[in-house]
Specification:
Layout lengths: L1 E4 L5 E5 L2 E2 L3 E8 L4 E8 L4 E5 L2 E3 L6 H13 L1 E2 L4 E6 L6 E2 L2 E11 L11 E7 L1 H9 L6 H10 L2
Parallel strand pairs: 3-10, 4-11
Antiparallel strand pairs: 1-2, 4-7, 5-6, 5-12, 8-11, 9-11
Length: 155
Amino acid sequence: EDTVELENGRVFDDYSTIQFSDSVVIVATDFEGRLIAIREYKYAVDKVMLGLPAGGIEQGHNAIYTARKELLEETGYEGDEGEVIHMVHNYPSKVAHNEYTVRIRNARKVTETAHEETESIESTELIEPADIKPELFEGSYSISALACCRMFAID
């Protein structure tokens, strides 16, 4: 815990922050423009949720390398090289962490999945572009990264 003086002059003697490794969220589409999503059990909220492939960036690797690796492991798909299209700080008041959005196009199924022990991915789903925004506004997506990425990365 740190002693912090905010810009407004208030001082807190017990201000704590959390350091996470940086991560990627992958907005990947196949040759037909369908979004590649995963349905996965999330322990913290005890729900199966629709989300995007994602993962932590390991020391010595970058966002593009990690995105390609995670897409392949979690879905069995690989695509074009990929590009970082956005970076956000999800909770900058308390968490020191960069989350990169990587866009990968023209993905195709090339292998079976290779999930990590901590992952509980039930399925890979291909979502038609026309279905993305209507479902977003109907509340079908409850993971913020999924909603945000779809809003600006897929037209």
